Amino acid sequence: ARVDADRMLLATQGALDADGALLSAAERAEVDALMAQLRATRTASQDAAEIEAATEALAKGTEAFAAERMN
Q: What is the DSSP letter of 71?
């Protein structure tokens, strides 16, 4: 679960670095908050399901951004 969390964080950060301008300030704040939550959960929790849930929340929270990057 931690490896998946790390991959998701790296991929999201890379996408933000490359195409973050596609997001509004509110959208960027939401993604940043989801990333911060995943980092905190990954660091503090030993529960794989909890880490996976935070990873999934980030994945769902970035779906629209990923779609926008494809266009």
A: -
What is the C-alpha to C-alpha distance for residues 52 and 1, in angstroms, rounded to an integer?
6
**What is the model's pTM?**
0.95
Asked if residues 55 and 8 have their Cβ atoms less than 8 Å apart, the reply is yes
How would you write the pLDDT of the chain (71 residues) with one tens digit per residue?
Answer: 999 999 999 999 999 999 999 999 999 999 999 999 999 999 999 999 999 999 999 999 999 999 999 98
What is the rounded CA–CA span in Å between residue 21 and residue 14?
13
Residues 6+ apart with CB under 8 A from 13: 35
Helices (H), the chain: 2-19, 25-44, 48-61, 63-70
